[in-house]
């Protein structure tokens, strides 16, 4: 499936592809959680870049960050997911244990409960417009959660929840490099609109990476939301990018109506979607035609919405 959600400039992984394997996980579990030492350890079918995840027996997972830049997410998620979970309409990862560096592995890591379901490929969703409303309802619930003491947007969230201006220089560099591949004039206008539409609301909880791979589906419906590593407290505009990366037509309208954000927030959301699609497009030119086409589509639809709504 074409990717539009890859992280930008990921930190260099440990030992090439991190040096993390099932044998290491088995040693860590045996040393720090001996009650689970006899359980099987197997890689998950779909893994991420930021972390390596392994099944532990039938009911748990072990999640290990691959580089220092992803370490703050471990303690953040372990502290805040149990607090947020009761306020949310679908499941989020249950935290069962916090591991320490050991066995040659240098970072903290976590043990979590396994959540049933599959990633939200469109073919697994019964009704995409209804699914879009479910995602919007999850976001509205998250945005209502108490922010007291929550981690303000910043480096730990890769600046999701901050003003999109954080990526201004990078975005302008992509625009210069992608002349001939995107409509640079229209894209620059949409980006300027995102910068102008400053966030003036109260900070709220945001997820930071609402994307196909972080939404689980069971029986054709949204069943869980995972990977809160880029979550924090700030501007919710970054949570709306899925409007262009997954939804279209009726489902996009349903999401927009249900999530209930103002025009300025949508302008910033278009900026976030544009930045990410430009980044991935620039990375994959000449190497991944499927990803290039997918991100060009996202950009075109973002620009059409800017022209129509901005």
Structure description:
The chain has 310 residues and is of the alpha+beta class. The protein has 2 domains: 15-115, Phosphorylase Kinase, domain 1 (2-Layer Sandwich), CATH 3.30.200; 119-309, Aminoglycoside 3'-phosphotransferase, Chain: A, domain 2, CATH 3.90.1200.10. The protein contains 10 helices and 10 strands. It has helices at 15-18, 22-32, 72-84, 128-144, 168-177, 184-196, 242-245, 250-259, 263-284, 289-309; strands spanning 41-43, 51-56, 60-65, 95-99, 109-113, 118-119, 204-206, 215-218, 221-225, 232-234. The chain has a 5-stranded antiparallel beta sheet with strand order 1-2-3-5-4, with helices on both faces. β2 (51-56) and β3 (60-65) form a beta hairpin. The longest helix has 22 residues, at 263-284. It is globular and about 60 Å long. Residues 1-17 have low confidence and may be disordered.
Summarize the structure.
By secondary structure, the protein is an alpha+beta fold. Helices cover 40% and strands 14% of the residues.
Question: Which structural traits does this protein have?
Answer:
310 residues; Aminoglycoside 3'-phosphotransferase, Chain: A, domain 2; three-stranded antiparallel beta sheet; 10 helices; 10 strands; 14% strand; globular
């Amino acid at each position: 499936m074409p990717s539009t959600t890859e992280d930008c400039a990921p930190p260099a992984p440990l030992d090439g592809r991190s040096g993390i394997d099932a044998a290491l996980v088995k040693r860590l579990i045996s040393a720090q959680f001996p009650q689970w030492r006899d359980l099987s350890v197997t890689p998950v079918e779909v893994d991420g870049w930021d972390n390596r995840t392994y099944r532990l027996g039938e009911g748990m997972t072990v999640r290990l960050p691959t580089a220092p830049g992803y370490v703050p997410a471990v303690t953040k998620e372990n502290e805040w997911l149990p607090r947020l979970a009761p306020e949310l309409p679908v499941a989020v990862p249950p935290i069962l244990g916090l591991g320490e560096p050991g066995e040659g592995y240098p970072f903290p890591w976590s043990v979590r409960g396994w959540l049933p379901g599959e990633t939200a490929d469109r073919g697994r969703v019964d009704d995409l417009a209804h699914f879009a409303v479910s995602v919007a309802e999850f976001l509205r619930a998250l945005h209502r959660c108490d922010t007291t003491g929550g981690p303000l947007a910043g480096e730990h969230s890769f600046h999701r929840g901050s003003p999109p201006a954080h990526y201004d220089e990078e975005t302008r560099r992509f625009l210069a490099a992608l002349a001939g591949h995107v409509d640079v004039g229209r894209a620059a206008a949409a980006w300027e609109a995102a910068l102008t539409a400053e966030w003036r609301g109260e900070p709220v909880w945001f997820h930071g990476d609402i994307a196909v791979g972080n939404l689980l589906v069971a029986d054709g419906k949204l069943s869980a939301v995972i990977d809160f590593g880029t979550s924090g407290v700030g501007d919710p505009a970054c949570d709306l990018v899925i409007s262009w990366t997954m939804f279209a037509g009726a489902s996009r309208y349903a999401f927009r109506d249900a999530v209930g954000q103002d025009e300025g927030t949508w302008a910033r959301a278009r900026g976030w979607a544009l930045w990410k699609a430009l980044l991935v497009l620039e990375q994959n030119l000449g190497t991944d035609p499927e990803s290039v086409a997918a991100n060009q589509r996202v950009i075109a639809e973002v620009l059409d919405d800017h022209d129509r709504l901005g």
